[in-house]
Amino acid sequence: MPNTQVPPPNAEPLPLSGWRLRWYTVIFEADTVAGRRFDLVLIALILISILVVMGDSVQQLHADYGRLFTTAEWVLTLLFTFEYLARLACSPRPMRYATSFFGVVDLISVLPTYLALIFPEVYALIDVRVLRLLRVFRILKLAAYVSEYQSLANALIASRRKILVFLSAVLMVVVIMGTVMYVVEGPANGFTSIPTSVYWAITTMTTVGFGDITPKTDLGRLISSAMMLLGWGTLAVPTGIVTAEMTSFRLSAKNLPTTRTCHQCLSEGHLVDANYCFKCGATLPDYLHEKQP
0.70 cut: is pTM over it? Predict the structure, then answer.
């Protein structure tokens, strides 16, 4: 019997050559000169599109320049549509890109304009394009920004348990102090319940101080002063925890991978000074000696 089993989608990457390889290098590899230029132009278009939507939401501007805003939005939408289709066309794994975070965001960024023809109320969703500005960390490839971004993310993950323990201690303090203030001040001074008093304790300890509830007795003001000083010192604790983790990661940091891709096996994430592919051993394109813009 013939083998009727369907292979899993994108089990192997599609081979890249010719225009697909050239497009892939420009669109997906931010370490090339052309790739940086393409992504910077894309960032500029995203910013312009957001400004267009924001300006069109102002009634006076809409009345004066509504047609111009509509034309600009359609031009930008067509450009983003072409960019999305180009990414699918040159991607070695189209479905992987389409279902990835940025792939979904890219699709959502163009859908509202088309859906607005049928459902005008979804037009405001075009602002979701601001999410694509997260690409700036990958596009500009400024080592300081990328390494610090990754260091911060790693530090937050590593210190999450310490921060949770700290927050649980803060929660106990605000509950206790809120209960004490409920007893000291009472409903006559605005502390109508323990949850309301806990709300006051949170706003006081975080130094927000809305002022909608204030103590009237001398003892209550003394407790408030202690809460303010305690809150001022408390804010520094999570900062110190994260900073310590960032310092630890910085001391043990290694070279970070880039968007460099092997044109033979399409494996990604090679180091900036690598000469050969870590997977197949093929010679990598020499981006280090490209002429900078």
Answer: no
- How far is it, in rounded angstroms, from Cα 64 to Cα 50? 18
Identify the bridge partners of residue 68 per DSSP, sorted by sequence position. Answer: none
Mapped onto helix, strand or coil, the DSSP state of residue 228 is helix
Residue 230: closest CA among 288, 169, 282: 169
Is there a contact between 81 and 110 (Cβ–Cβ < 8 Å)? Answer: yes
Q: How many domains does the chain have?
A: 2
**Nearest one of 9, 26, 94, 8 to 261, comparing CA atoms:** 26
pLDDT, one tens digit per residue, over 157-207 is: 888 888 888 889 889 999 999 999 999 999 999 999 999 999 999 999 888
Enter the tokens of residue 265: 């096996």
**Among 285, 289, 291, 267, CA closest to 22:** 285
**Distance between CA atoms of residues 72 and 65, nearest Å:** 11
| 210 within 8 A of 171, measured Cβ to Cβ | no
Q: Are residues 128 and 222 in the same domain?
A: no
78 is a domain residue: yes
- DSSP letters for 172-200: HHHHHHHHHHHHHH-GGGT--SHHHHHHH
